[in-house]
Amino acid sequence: MTVGLYRPGDTVLHRLPVGAKLLGLAVLSIAIVVLRGPLVAIGFLGVAVVLALVGRLDLAATARALRAVLVIAVVVALLQWWLFTLPRAVESLLDLISLALLALTLTVTTPTTETLDAVVRWIRPLRRIGIDPERVALTISMAIQALPGTLTLAQETRDAARARGLGRSPRAYLTPFVIRVVARAHETGDALKARGLGD
Amino acid sequence: MAEIRFEAAEVRVESPDQAGSRTILEPTTLSLTEQRVGIVGGNGSGKSTLARLINGLMLPSAGRVTVDGLDVARQGAAVRRRVGFTFTDPAAQLVMPTCVEDVELSLRRTVKDRVRRKQIALETLVRFGLAERAEVSVHALSGGQRQLLALAGVLATEPEVLVTDEPTTLLDLRNTRMVGDLLLSLPQQLVLVTHDLDLVRRCDRVLVVEDGRVCFDGDADSAVKHYVRTVSEG
Predict the structure, then answer these.
(1) With contact defined as beta carbons under 8 Å apart, do A40 and A90 qualify?
(2) d(Cα A101, Cα A114) in Å, to the nearest integer?
(3) What DSSP string runs through B1-51?
(4) CA-derived radius of gyration, chain A
(5) Which residue of B has its CA nearest to A199?
(6) Per the CB 3.0–4.6 Å rule, which of A122, A181, B9, B85 could disulfide with B63?
(7) pLDDT at res. A2
(8) In this structure, what are the phi and psi dihedrals at residue B96, rounded to the nearest 5 degrees?
(9) Entry pTM
C-alpha cells in the first residue's frame, strides 16, 4: 500500500520549502470551502490537477489513492442533492476531490520527516505552556501514516470475512475491523513507548 | 554487559471474571549479565511479560526491575535509552511511510541535525541490507525485511541491550535464519524471547517460564531439555 507516499523528485514542488507548501495548502483549502458555486469548484479542481501535474504524481497511484475519497465524495454529493440542490452536490463532489488531490500532492512531494521538522520548529514557542512539539509533530505524522495501515487492515479483515463465507455481512466485517484498528493502535502505542518516543 | 536485575518483581492484573487480581508473573528474582539470554515457554506463560518489564513497557506491581541500577518504574526514559525492544509483528512498530524515515524517527531524540540524521539512517539501512529499499514504503516490504527494518530502527540509536519478543515467529525458514543469525551476532546484550529452540540453543543462558514463574534457569542445552520434557509430560 503506497497511498500518499513521498516520491523523490526534482520538480518545483519538491524544491519548494515545506512551510510554503503547507501554507499554500491551508490557503487553498480555506478558499475551496469559503468560495461557493460549481464554476468556482471546477476552477479549484483545475488548480489541483495542474499542481499534481507539476509535482509529476504517478497517474495510477493517484487514481488508487483517490478511489476511496471518490466513494465518500459521491455519497456526500448524493446527500447534498437529496437535501439541497444539484449544483450544490456537484460543488461538494468537486471540492472534496480537489482537497484530497491537493493533500496528496503535498505528501507525495514532501518527505514526512521534513513536515515533522517544520511543525516542531513552528510550535517550539508553545513549549513554554507545556506543549511538547515533538509529540505534536509525531501525532501529525502518525495521522498521515495511519491511512495506508488502516486500509491494509480493512483489506485483511474483508478477506477473512470472505474466507468464512461472510463476505456480504457488514457485521462480520465491521466488528473485527474496528477491534483490529483499536488493537493496532494499542500495539503502535507500545512500540512508540518502547522506542522512547513518548518520553 | 549491562546488569538487568529483577528483585522480587511481580505482575498482577485486575481480572473481572475472578475475585481480585490475577498473577501474570510470580515474584521473580534474577540477575542477567550474559551476552545472550534466551527465554522460552508456552503461550501465555509469562515470558513476554518478563521481557516487557526490562524496557518498562510493563511495570511491576510489586518488587522492582533495574537496568544498570536504573529503576524501570522511576527512570523509564533513561532505561529505554539503554534498552531497545522489538515486537513479534513489526507492522505495528513501523510508523513512518518509508524505511529511511522510520529509522530517522528513532534518531530524532539524539541527532538534531536533519542531514546527519538521514546519513546515519541510510548507513544503518546499509548495515541491515536494506539500502536499496530506503525510499520504499514500509508496507511494500516482505516479512523478513520488515523485521530487519524494525531492528534497524531500534539499533540505530545504539542501545546497550536489545530485548526482542518472538522476532522470528512470523517468518519463513530463510528469514528466520537470517534474522536469527543477525540477532546472535550483535554486539549488544540480547534478551531473546522465542519458540525457536535452534535459536535458543545458541544463547549463553536460558530461562524457561511456565505458569508465570521461571521454572528453570541454566545453560541452553539443559534448559531446552527441561522445556521439551515439560511439554511432553503435558
Answers:
(1) no
(2) 20
(3) ---EEEEEEEEEEE-TTSSSEEEEEEEEEEEE-SSEEEEEE-TTSSHHHHH
(4) 19
(5) B77
(6) B9
(7) 47
(8) -110, 160
(9) 0.78
Phi, psi of B46 (to 5 degrees): 115, 5
- Chain A CB contacts of B48 under 8 Å are none
Task: Judge: B96–A141 Cβ closer than 8 Å, yes or no.
Answer: yes
Sort out which chain B residues have CB atoms less than 8 A from A149's CB and list them.
91, 139
Give the mean pLDDT of chain B.
91
Are A81 and A89 contacting, i.e. CB atoms less than 8 angstroms apart?
yes
Contacts of B102 (CB under 8 A, 6+ apart): B94, B95, B96, B138, B149, B153
Q: Rounded to an integer, what distance in angstroms lies between the CA atom of residue A85 and that of residue A94?
A: 15
Separation CA A158–CA A174 (nearest Å) = 9
Sign of CA dihedral A192, A195, A196, B1: positive
Report in angstroms the alpha-carbon separations of B211 from A128, B208, B215, B231.
Answer: 49, 10, 9, 13
> In this predicted model, what pLDDT tens digit does every residue of B145-160 receive, in sequence order?
998 999 999 999 999 9
Determine the Cα–Cα distance for residues A47 and B148; give it in Å rounded to an integer.
42
At A144, give phi and psi (nearest 5°): -65, -45
Q: How many residues does chain B have?
A: 234
The answer to whether B87 contacts A187, with C-beta atoms less than 8 Å apart, is yes
Mind giving me the DSSP string for A71-117?
HHHHHHHHHHHHHS-HHHHHHHHHHHHHHHHHHHHHHHHS-HHHHHH
**Best CA proximity match to B57, nearest among B36, B77, B35, B43:** B77
Q: In what order do the strands lie in the sheet with B4-14?
A: B21-32, B4-14, B62-67, B70-71
Q: Which residues pair with B137 in a beta bridge?
A: B98
Q: How many Cβ pairs closer than 8 A exist between chain A and B? A: 99
* CA distance linking residue B57 with residue B36, whole number of Å: 21
Q: Specify whether the CB–CB gap between A151 and A5 falls below 8 A.
A: no
DSSP per-residue codes, B191-227: EEE-S-HHHHTTSSEEEEEETTEEEEEE-HHHHHHHH
From A7, A90, A14, A79, select the one nearest A45 (Cα to Cα): A90
B214 near B51, Cβ under 8 Å? no
More confident residue, A198 or A183: A183
First-last CA distance in chain B: 37
Which set of grid coordinates corresponds to residue B95? 510508523
